[in-house]
Amino acid sequence: MATPDRPGFVLPLLLLAGFRTLIDDLHAELAGQGHPDLRPAHGFVLQAVGPAGTTASDLGQRLGVSKQAAGKTVDRLVALGYLERADDPADARRKLVRMTAKGHDGLRRSAILFDELRDRWAATLGADRVAAMEDDLRRMVPSDVFRLDVPGWFGG
Predict the structure, then answer these.
(1) pTM over 0.70
(2) Which of 5, 78, 110, 130 gets the most CB atoms within 10 Å of its CB?
(3) Final residue of a domain: which of 80, 99, 118?
(4) Which residues share a beta bridge with 27?
(5) HTH marR-type domain location, by residue (predicted)?
(6) What distances in angstroms separate CA 4 from CA 9, 14, 37, one per listed residue?
């Protein structure tokens, strides 16, 4: 039950602040490892592109944003060297968006860094408490927790 010293609105703010702390720490580390231009939204895009690539239209649907918004982000990531556009071998009228070696490296480093960040939290809070927090969150969140449409959801 929410109480005056623990009002209900504090929980989502703390969850968001925890997420933000992890993401800010991740990007500080990524910058030091050769990826200073990667931004939090870029991780969602790279995940949505996936190993096989996708079209800008499908990417927009996966992210919950318009095709134009997806295209603008793709343009930026192409300019930064994380994505490339290529002809679709199955349909010459379509262009695929694919990750480059730099994009794969950014995702690989992110996965390693997330493990290291989790280990830091466990060193501070205790491994059992971090595991319990993860278990509790798994019980409370929907099963489709790993949706990639967060950029669209935040955008309204």
Answers:
(1) yes
(2) 110
(3) 99
(4) none
(5) 1-142
(6) 11, 16, 42
